[in-house]
Specification:
The complex is a heterodimer of chains A (about 350) and B (about 260). Chain A has 8 helices and 19 strands. Chain A has helices spanning about 45-55, 95-105, 110-125, 140-150, 170-185, 195-205, 220-225, 230-235, and strands spanning about 5-15, 20-30, 35-40, 60-65, 70, 80-85, 155-160, 190-195, 205-210, 215-220, 240-245, 250, 255-260, 270, 280-295, 295-305, 305-315, 325-330, 335-340. In chain A, strands 6-7-8-3-9-10 form a 6-stranded mixed beta sheet, sandwiched between helices. With about 260 residues, chain B is mostly helical. Chain B folds into 2 domains: about 1-45, no CATH class; about 55-255, MetI-like (MetI-like fold, Orthogonal Bundle), CATH 1.10.3720.10. Classes of the chains: A alpha+beta (about 350), B mainly alpha (about 260). The complex binds adenosine-5'-triphosphate and magnesium ion (MG).
């Protein structure tokens, strides 16, 4: 076992009755990594987490953690923690007792117990709330109790299912840094689910993009952001102009359109962010159908022979009116070259 | 205008109707006269004291207490796991099961009593006390299932998974995180069951036999022979006992939340 294969899913298939939610998943996660599981609703993120935690048994395949096959190890014997989206705190116990719950079951007692619980609460900044009941805490505080409750168990892997989705925008930002800090300080291997790509890009060492039960792409945030491999990932990370490519043409609603530039032979598609579209000059023409001001930039929606194109330019430039006809270009050297298309 | 006038009158009528009998019974039980009458003839505690001297009342009170407490506990032992299964697992025909379990609430007590007598007690030759015990358990079970189910529905099931992930077994999770959180519901079910059983007449009527009677049945037969105010005194005492239980329950549990 090497550190880069700390948690391995091998041909893991997960199903609900006859419905296969996740077919044949292969995945390696390294020790101490902070990994984001990113994907649209219903793609199998929660299902995958539940299988790793042991709340659901794979129909086939293996789960190996730290060199041990844990596929048949029951959930209560796995060194895996899971923080629920709903926090799942025990309403009849106060904060201290919630955090102590698992430790007591492990047989930790007396001053050792006290020390570990207090340390856990300190880590998440909740020492002064020890005697409160969960109902007397804010959402963010409950989230942190839930985090502490799992952390004090010192799991080998900590899973978080949409840890930030129940929080308001400001608290979300705060908890993002908080989670990152806790992870870096403890060195725990952490996988968190999200369907917000900004969150994934900002926090993770590595991102797993899932679609319909399979992994579309795995990579660093830079990889995913700059080099999406498929039209789906491209669209997900903000390449809003995506085309299939055949030879030196791109397929559009109005037939194939020739395009100039070097394209890899293996490239199946081309994608441009709005900011990559050259506006004011080029071989194509489009009519402004909508504009929106986004602070530093201004976005235009253009009706063109290629279909609708989203373009963006500096807001300090003079604005174009609705109905204006603009020249534009889709420069191939800027485009993301996609290895796969057809998943959109 | 007319609404303002009618409302207090209606309220007064309703209150009279609800509380009136209670007041009459208390008054009648404090009578010094020989027969049950209202208004009371003079004031005395002699009939209240008499209640405690009647041998058969003492025996039947014991039977009723045994049925109310034992039957309720047994109904809860059956009802809590049943409610849990109905609320947490996809039991096929859960709705049907729920309807069947709660049918004694729907079916008149006389019919339940007769059916039990005809098809269980007589053919299987059950002892009277055992038959009464089973009948009371069956009567209380619907309340137990309803009230406990209601509090289970309000409890998120993911806390059980959280407990399992922290090292509990499934059964352990039930006792450590489910039971403590439905404690109020269980106590509410206990009180409802106790009161239902204690006041039960029709079913007990069919099943009571020589030497074994519940208190309400005993009071009925006492009245057939003796028409003195001691029955009123006993009723008043029982009413106070129920009031006391409900008051304590409300005080410590917020009982009305569950019923
Ligand atoms: N208990 C269940 N029974 C049957 N099918 C289920 C069950 N839970 C999930 N599924 C199905 O499995 C698939 C994956 O669901 P999952 O909950 O893992 O998605 P998700 O990626 O977590 O979505 P979301 O972002 O909405 O939480 C979906 O198609 C869903 O319909
Ligand atoms: Mg989910």
């Amino acid at each position: 076992m090497s550190d880069s294969r700390f948690l391995c899913l091998e041909k893991m298939t997960l199903s609900y009755g006859k419905n296969v939610a996740v077919p044949d998943m292969d995945l390696d996660i390294g020790k101490g990594e902070l990994v984001a599981l990113l994907g649209p609703s219903g793609c199998g993120k929660t299902t995958t987490m539940r299988a790793i935690a042991g709340l659901m048994e794979p129909a086939s395949g293996k789960i190996v953690l730290d060199g041990t096959d844990i596929t048949r190890v029951p959930a209560n014997k796995r060194p895996v923690g899971l923080v629920f989206q709903s926090y799942a705190l025990f309403p009849h116990l106060n904060v201290y007792e919630n955090v102590a719950f698992g430790l007591k079951l492990m047989g930790v007692k007396g001053s050792e117990l006290d020390k570990r619980v207090i340390d856990g609460l300190k880590t998440v900044g909740l020492s002064q709330y020890a005697t409160r009941k969960p109902a007397e805490l804010s959402g963010g505080q409950q989230q942190r109790v839930s985090l502490a409750r799992s952390m004090v168990m010192e799991p080998k892997v900590l899973l978080l299912d949409e840890p930030l989705s129940n929080l308001d925008a400001r608290l979300r930002l705060e908890m993002r840094t908080e989670l990152q800090r806790v992870q870096k300080e403890s060195g725990v291997t952490m996988i968190f689910v999200t369907h917000d790509q900004v969150e994934a890009l900002a926090m993770a060492d590595r991102i797993i993009v899932m679609l319909d039960g399979h992994i579309e792409q795995i990579g660093t945030p830079e990889d995913i952001y700059n080099h999406p491999v498929s039209d789906f990932v491209a669209d997900f990370v903000g390449f809003e102009n995506v085309f299939e490519r055949v030879g030196n043409t791109i397929k559009t609603a109005n037939g194939d359109v020739a395009i100039a530039g070097d394209i890899d032979d293996a490239t199946k598609g081309l994608a441009w962010r709005p900011s990559m579209v050259t506006l004011g000059d080029g071989p194509f023409e489009g009519t402004v159908r909508g504009t929106s001001f986004a602070g530093g930039t201004r976005e235009y929606l253009l009706d063109t022979p290629l279909g609708q194109i989203k373009a963006e330019c500096d807001a300090s430039l003079p604005a174009h009116d609705f109905g204006a006809v603009l020249k534009f270009d889709l420069p191939v050297h800027k485009a993301a070259q996609l290895a796969r298309t057809g998943s959109l | 205008m007319s609404n303002k006038l009618y409302a207090p009158i209606i309220l007064l009528l309703v209150l009279t109707f609800l509380i009136g009998p209670f007041i009459i019974i208390i008054a009648a039980s404090l009578s010094a006269g020989e027969t049950l009458s209202f208004p009371p003839q003079g004031l005395s505690l002699r009939w209240v004291i008499k209640v405690f001297e009647v041998e058969s009342f003492r025996a039947s009170f014991g039977v009723s207490m045994f049925l109310a407490i034992g039957g309720t506990i047994f109904a809860l032992i059956l009802g809590i796991p049943a409610s849990y299964a109905l609320s947490r697992y996809k039991v096929p025909g859960a709705e049907t099961i729920r309807t069947i379990v709660s049918s004694p609430i729907i079916v008149p007590g006389i019919i339940v009593g007769l059916a039990l007598l005809r098809y269980f007690v007589v053919p299987f030759n059950f002892g009277i006390l055992f038959a009464l015990f089973l009948a009371h358990t069956a009567l209380i079970l619907p309340y137990a299932v309803r009230v406990v189910s209601a509090s289970l529905t309000n409890l998120r099931s993911d806390i059980e998974e959280a407990a399992v992930l922290l090292g509990c077994s499934r059964v352990g999770a039930f006792f450590r995180v489910v039971m403590p959180n439905i404690r109020g519901g269980i106590l509410a079910a206990f009180i409802l069951g106790f009161v239902t059983s204690f006041n039960q007449v029709p079913v007990s009527l069919f099943l009571s036999g020589p030497g074994v009677r519940t208190l309400p049945i005993d009071m009925l037969s006492y009245m057939e022979i003796t028409y003195d105010p001691s029955v009123a005194a006993l009723s008043a005492l029982l009413a106070f006992m129920s009031l006391g239980i409900v008051f304590l329950a409300e005080r410590f549990l917020g009982f009305s939340r569950y019923v």
